[in-house]
Amino acid sequence: GGHAKEVKLGIIFGFTGPIESLTPPMAAAAELAMKEVTDSGLLLDAATVTPIRADSTCVDAAAATAAAERLITSDKIDGIVGADCSGVTGAILANVAVPNGMVMISPSATSPALSTAEDNGLFFRTAPSDARQGAVMTEVLMEMGIKEVALTFTNNDYGKGLATSFEEAFKAAGGTVTITAAHEDGKADYSAEVGALAAAGGDRLVVAGYLDQGGSGIVRASLDSGAFDTFHFPDGMYGALLEENFGDEIDGSTGQVPGTDSPGAGTIREMGDANGFDGTSSFVAESYDAAALVMLAMQAANSKDPADYKGKVMDVANAPGEKIYPGELAKALQILKDGGDIDYVGGTAVELIGPGESAGNYRQYEMKGGKITTVKYR
Amino acid sequence: MSEPFLIGDTMTGGYGKGPDILHDCTIAVNPGEIAVIVGPNGAGKSTAMKAVFGMLEVRSGSVRLDGEDITKLSPQDRVVKGMGFVPQTSNIFTTMTVEENLEMGAFIRTDDFSQTMEQVYHLFPILKEKRYQAAGELSGGQRQQVAVGRALMTQPKVLMLDEPTAGVSPIVMDELFDRIIEVSRTGIPILMVEQNARQALEIADKGYVLVQGRNAYTGTGKELLADPEVRKSFLGG
Amino acid sequence: MIVVEDVHKHFGGFHAVDGASLEITKGSITGLIGPNGAGKTTLFNVIAGVLPPTSGRVTMDGEDITGLPPHELFHKGLLRTFQIAHEFGSMSCRENLMMVPGAQSGETLWNTWFGRKRIADEERALRAKADEVLEFLTIEHLSDHKAGQVSGGQKKLLELGRTMMVDAKIVFLDEVGAGVNRTLLNTIGDAIIRLNQERGYTFVVIEHDMDFIGRLCDPVICMAEGKVLAEGTLEEIKANEQVIEAYLGTGLKNKDQLEGA
Amino acid sequence: MSEPMKNTFLFALVGCLILLTGFMQSWNTALLILNMGLISAIMAIGVNLQWGFAGLFNVGIMGFVALGGLAAVLVATPPTPGAWSAGGYRVVLALVLGAATVTAAVLVNARLPKGRNRNMITLAILVGGFFLYRGVFDPGVAAIEAINPAAAGNIGGINLPILLAWPVGGLLAAGAAWLIGKTALGLRSDYLAIATLGIAEIIIAVLKNEDWLARGVKNVIGLPRPVPYEIDLQNDPGFVENAVSLGLDPVTASTLYVKLGYSVLFAVVLLVLLWMAQMALKSPWGRMMRAIRDNEVAAEAMGKDVTRRHLQIFVLGSAVCGLAGAMMTTLDGQLTPGTYQPLRYTFLIWVMVIVGGSGNNMGAVLGGMLIWFLWVQVEPIGLFLMQVITSGMSEGNALKEHLIDSAAHMRLFTMGIVLLLVLRFAPRGLIPEK
Amino acid sequence: MDFLNAIVALSNFVLVPAIAYGSQLALGALGVTLIYGILRFSNFAHGDTMAFGSMTAVLVTWWLQSLGVSLGPLPTALLALPAAILGCMLLVLFTDRVVYKFYREQKAKPVILVIVSMGVMFIMNGVVRFIIGPNDQKFSDGERFIISAREFKQLTGLREGLAIKTTQGITVVVAIIAVALLFWFLNRTRTGKSMRAYSDNEDLALLSGINPERVVMYTWMIVAALATVAGVLYGLDKSFKPFVYFQLLLPIFASAIVGGLGNPLGAIAGGFVIAFSEVTITYAWKKVLKYMMPESLEPNGLVQLLSTDYKFAVSFVILLIVLLFRPTGLFKGKSV
Ligand SMILES: Nc1ncnc2c1ncn2[C@@H]1O[C@H](COP(=O)(O)OP(=O)(O)OP(=O)(O)O)[C@@H](O)[C@H]1O
Ligand SMILES: Nc1ncnc2c1ncn2[C@@H]1O[C@H](COP(=O)(O)OP(=O)(O)OP(=O)(O)O)[C@@H](O)[C@H]1O
Ligand SMILES: [Mg+2]
Ligand SMILES: [Mg+2]
């Protein structure tokens, strides 16, 4: 325990590998939160927070473990923001974080399996489990009266998990999934998938993939061949690129992302603009929140020792207390310092439930005139 | 005696970083002459030829062509200078057709070489039959004919042959020797390694016997043939 | 001993061996001659199992061996050399010979871990044998040299040396003489005769050197265009008009002129 | 420098690098690198058996490594309750049927005379068999996958100690290699390479998509371990006491203890394999293999059954890779089929073999350890380089930011540079074949 | 009518995409096959060479676009091609000089060169991401379609649409021209023959007066041109993203191998084999059958041989089958 002048936080994201284009803004957001805290001079003994990046590669468990090991045992970090992909997150958690008693808050590992992973209370995530999203998605589609969809998912734990939970929920609600076809990310060509999807047909194509990966490829090929012109997008497909790449071509398409009507999301976007990263890119707000939560928990525990502050993460994230939005970290630190209570809302309306994962608020949107327009929140 | 047209003068050298194979070995040939190198296996005959052609480093000594020192030239520059060479092994382009092999022989020529090609086909009629076949599919003797044909295509100023008759049938061998004599008559010096030594020495103006990388005997073809010691040790009695 | 019955080997439309039939008697040294491209090597390859015949049959001691893979024929006592030397380039000359004998107990993986004593004994004997052969071929100084880096003729000698490492029944020699020094070739000829007489090896020899054929072979078979053209003693063959025309020729035309000049 | 001197020096160098990591970074990092280095060395031995000894260009290492990983799941996890009765037996039956179909087709092909008749019958058997197989298989799979899909949905394992999974992984890989070898070993050089690469992709595709087997892309995490858990150690008063008496804090002591445990296990396996490979290489068996590698036609003519020997060494090498794969999955504690990428699991191993020196077991081991070390350490090295380069630039400089941001990409970049440098100064590998 | 609909549906979802994808693969495979054929190693850096060439094209295109230059209906990137090819040539020639030349002189084994090319791949990979970043980049402009699905429906009154993209058209045309040129070049021209001679027997090529460094230089230049063209066309059709070019390497190699290494015709054939096997085997025939069959017989399943999960595996299975019957590819390729 004890006070300190310096707090080191590890950021373990896949800076190389399949989601390498998502990670830079994510890391930037997390680092922004840290800078905010450092600048406030209110954390512990006016500690400076130093971020240390490490590459999870997203896919190579061994390399990710080694990187985490180095951060903890050699750089002596006090908490981990990360990892990103569920697979490497599980590996780091089991092999490094738990043995070393290190707190980990992942902004983007959404696999339902992580809910039950052995974590000694060290693991949290600001992204909701995919199980929840499947249900939300079904609601959205059913409300629009769409009963028949084709489904394609990116063939990894995220895509598969989401597809399964969606399919289950959708069928239970009386809908039909005409085909469930996996697609691999980063491949050269998606004609085969689109061919099969088109043949199966459906009112809408649900693309449980990544926007800057195969998901876009599928959408592009579907549009070009005239197979589908309206889609439904889960969180991985949300981002500015949607407007940029497709614009009004996909008018009428719908989707949902974790998000709230809380002003937080907008703030993150503005912060992004001001600091030169894309605040609307996937999991950027979650990354900011993950970093913020680590530091707020430290403040609440008045210690940078994970063993002390791991118990405080849930407290600062949830009610009761004063609602805290992005950019208000100084205020939050002050309240905590004064012994008050906060309810961190952040960019994604964080609400941690059960085993320390986001309860999952979603923003439903529609493409109108080539722009992403929010329909409502649920 | 004046300087020979092509001379590998007191050459010493070996492969890569390995030991010396050649020791002060000298071979020379003049226009209109046929010089034949004989010697036991591994004596360094092929090595000497390669050294003259610049395919291995000559550590001391020099190679001169028409009075010019070419020791430092690369093999392809020597080709341009008019030297033609048929190596002992892997001497054809196996994946290319017979005709393409011959064309490659004429690579540096800019004039019309169809005439020469006809001559080669005339010399080795079987090659004309197989002109569109990949050279790698030929029989051993046929390959050898392609190899010699390729060198003839260059119309070289000096021709070097490493065992051109190995594996060719008697009738072709006779033809080949005939042709070699013909070529040499046109004033082109010919340097040749032969294990068919008796036949080769008969037509040779000059003979070298190499043993362990050294000149052991040198003389006219006739002299060497007449030397009982040489006959017994190197020509098979 | 070996009977070749109407063997055909076609490459695409080309008939390299075109209905060759011949018989090789036990204990003979048979010479096989013929112009370049006559199909001699191809016939060897068919007999030795390298190429499957298009049609026809090969028997050895009455047993049909058509299409048997080379390694099985080896164990039946059939050895051959290659016209274009096939050395094991990255191995030393001695190893090139030592690898030949079959049924080495050290070739079983298990023994390499648990039968090391036996292997060591066998190796010693093999090594002695290999050195003996190398010495005979006058290349004992090259025993530790990589086979890929010896002279062309020496490779041919290794080729021959391999056949001397084991007790064979029948040995096919494809132009072992080409590129070998004539003096040494005579020694080799003597050795072949000795093996033939003392140990009863049968030999089939392809050669273009008539002196060599004449010294060793009886009978001599001449092939041309994939068929057997003539068969008999060398004298008979030499007198055969067709053979002269296709193969032997009438000697140098230019030589006399050269001497006249 | 003499041969043995140089080699000792090189090994000492790698040792020093790891020690240096221990001093400069942390002992945990050092041990982690050592452990994966040991596994990599084993894989490199496997590849070296195939390439260095026999000249087989196998680029399907990833597949065999993954099969080893599968073995870890099938052996060490507890069976999923109800999965066997729900569909397990059905699936096994289907697989048997499938195998029978193929066998029947092969037999028919071998027995019947050539001609249209044969082709038709073979085709009929194959098509009929396929539908029969799917008919039995699909419902079984559906039933298994329906059982608690979020956490299970697979058949589970047989709950034996995970150490047993290592030999089983080897066997599994050997079995697959035998099948592959029987069909594909007629291919040569790069054709064999791409064929094996393809087979590895197929194996991964099966692992990813057959959820009933090992949960597919949903991953299996939390595999049991052959060594104690850190938490248990930290809660064990005896251990804590010992740690404190050594002047270590319990957390560090426990993590080091666990890693050392792995190191010992891996080192034992490596040494045994290395000894076996060395003995084989130096024996007539190794000589025969080299002869086959140098010239198949001649080896065949000298009575060596090239096909059989190729198969033998292909199976052996693959088994070694499978064993290493099982060990790796054990160390990771999880099986994540999506992470099997040719770059990491095939080509990196090849880099190890070539840099170490193909045809030489010591070289393979050295290459395995060294390249793994670099693979892990180039990241900080790259970052460090960037910091050095940018140190002269002013704060907030756009180029500086760009450079620092790109640091992560410098990882592969640095790896490339190091690779080229090593191969430039030792073009035949650090410890070349004699 | 229904029959026409069936044909159109099949063309739209199978034939057109497979032909276009096949041509893309073929263009890539041409480069790989040429390196293998002449320099005798499998070049792993080819994907990243493509990425580099395309990156140059992207940058030049952006510049041209900012100047307001355009090609009307054709993508501006075509204008940028010459500059990009030049840039790519400089890169590969530089690489050859500082990297490959050394091993050539050492007469290193092909596998060493393979590993070396991996090192080069890593480096190029880093360079490209360093310059343009890892993200998707858009640079296509001009007319997207030769005919779009909607237009086709309006034009013909059929229920099914047929879309043909401009880039698809260009790719196919370019692929055909490239292969014809290359074939002619290698088999008919002196330089081409000398390149083959060099690849066959380097020493003998020397003895024929062929300058090996020249041959190598020409090879790299052609490869750079091919790689750039292939990369740019691919990028126009999909989008430019460095990582994907690396992923493209695998199907490209597969194509080159199926066709037979070293043979340009083989590269084309291989590209189509791989593309068609990916697209057809996993195609769900439901739609087509629905048009063809009387209503009572309409299938209610998808009529799909295999699910798309296995599409990649399928193309490799096809590759294996081809190789089992033709161990050196469809067109009797080389092997070292
Ligand atoms: N793989 C092949 N493809 C096509 N033709 C071939 C092939 N192998 C051999 N030939 C042809 O078959 C014929 C017989 O060749 P073979 O090697 O048997 O001749 P040979 O009698 O041994 O001649 P030599 O005395 O020159 O060695 C030749 O004309 C050759 O061109
Ligand atoms: N590539 C090589 N590397 C190293 N040593 C070599 C190489 N080639 C040949 N040698 C050695 O050089 C010596 C001479 O070889 P060379 O080829 O010149 O002999 P040669 O006289 O031509 O014999 P042959 O009549 O058998 O062709 C031999 O002892 C051989 O071992
Ligand atoms: Mg020689
Ligand atoms: Mg022959």
From TrEMBL, chain B:
SMART domains the UniProt entry points to: AAA
InterPro entries: AAA+_ATPase, ABC_transporter-like_ATP-bd, BCAA_Transport_ATP-bd_LivF, P-loop_NTPase
Keyword ATP-binding annotated: yes
Record-linked SUPFAM superfamilies: P-loop containing nucleoside triphosphate hydrolases
GO terms assigned for molecular function: ATP binding
Coiled coil: none
Keywords: Amino-acid transport, ATP-binding, Nucleotide-binding, Transport
Domain ABC transporter: 5-237
Domain of life of the organism encoding this protein: Bacteria
Membership in a protein family: Belongs to the ABC transporter superfamily.
Listed name of the protein: ABC transporter ATP-binding protein
Organism from which the protein derives: Aliisedimentitalea scapharcae
Automatic annotation (TrEMBL), chain C:
Protein name (database record): ABC transporter ATP-binding protein
Keyword Nucleotide-binding: yes
Record-linked PROSITE patterns: ABC_TRANSPORTER_1 (PS00211), ABC_TRANSPORTER_2 (PS50893)
Ranges of residues in domain ABC transporter: 2-250
Pfam families per record: ABC_tran, BCA_ABC_TP_C
Keyword Membrane assigned: no
Organism classification: Bacteria, Pseudomonadati, Pseudomonadota, Alphaproteobacteria, Rhodobacterales
Native organism: Aliisedimentitalea scapharcae
Keywords: ATP-binding, Nucleotide-binding, Transport
UniProtKB/TrEMBL annotation, chain D:
Keywords: Cell membrane, Membrane, Transmembrane, Transmembrane helix
PANTHER family, per database record: HIGH-AFFINITY BRANCHED-CHAIN AMINO ACID TRANSPORT PROTEIN BRAE, HIGH-AFFINITY BRANCHED-CHAIN AMINO ACID TRANSPORT SYSTEM PERMEASE
Protein name as annotated: Branched-chain amino acid ABC transporter permease
Subcellular location: Cell membrane
Coiled coil residues, start to end: none
Native source organism of the sequence: Aliisedimentitalea scapharcae
Residue ranges crossing the lipid bilayer per the database entry: 7-24, 30-49, 56-76, 88-108, 120-137, 157-179, 191-207, 260-281, 311-331, 343-362, 369-389, 409-426
Protein topology in the membrane: Multi-pass membrane protein
Principal subcellular localisation of the protein: membrane
Taxonomic lineage from the root: Bacteria, Pseudomonadati, Pseudomonadota, Alphaproteobacteria, Rhodobacterales
InterPro entries found in the cross-reference section: ABC_transp_permease, LivM-like
Automatic annotation (TrEMBL), chain E:
Keywords in alphabetical order: Amino-acid transport, Cell inner membrane, Cell membrane, Membrane, Transmembrane, Transmembrane helix, Transport
InterPro entries in UniProt: ABC_BtuC-like, ABC_transp_permease, BCAA_transport_permease
Primary residence: membrane
Coiled-coil parts of chain: none
Membrane-related topology note: Multi-pass membrane protein
UniProt subcellular location: Cell membrane
Pfam families with a match to the protein in the record: BPD_transp_2 (PF02653)
Source superkingdom: Bacteria
Transmembrane segments: 6-39, 51-71, 77-99, 111-132, 168-186, 215-236, 305-325
Family indicated by similarity: Belongs to the binding-protein-dependent transport system permease family. LivHM subfamily.
Protein name: Branched-chain amino acid ABC transporter permease
Organism: Aliisedimentitalea scapharcae
